[in-house]
Predict the 3D structure of the following.
Amino acid sequence: MAKEQSSIREREHIGTCEPRRYKVIIHNDDFTTMEFVVTVLKTVFFKTAEEAERMMLNVHRNGQDVVGIYSYDVALSKIKKATRMAREQNFPLRFSCQPE
């Protein structure tokens, strides 16, 4: 019997990699109240009351803190939601997103 040739080649290695993750960072300012920062951390980033207070104090002392690590779309979505909440209350609270 003759061998049949095929134009289809099988791949031995398929390159898959994890999607890049991004850190969401909250920045300190002199106008946003500590209570509001705790509220944002609890409602947008789903932190417990203890975690939210610890993060808020860390931001107050150090100027910034990482509030979570997410995929790019989730990170941007959370930043937009938290920023919108702050602007509705007339606070200049700021967040940023950096690759992990």
Q: What stands out?
A: The radius of gyration is 22 Å.
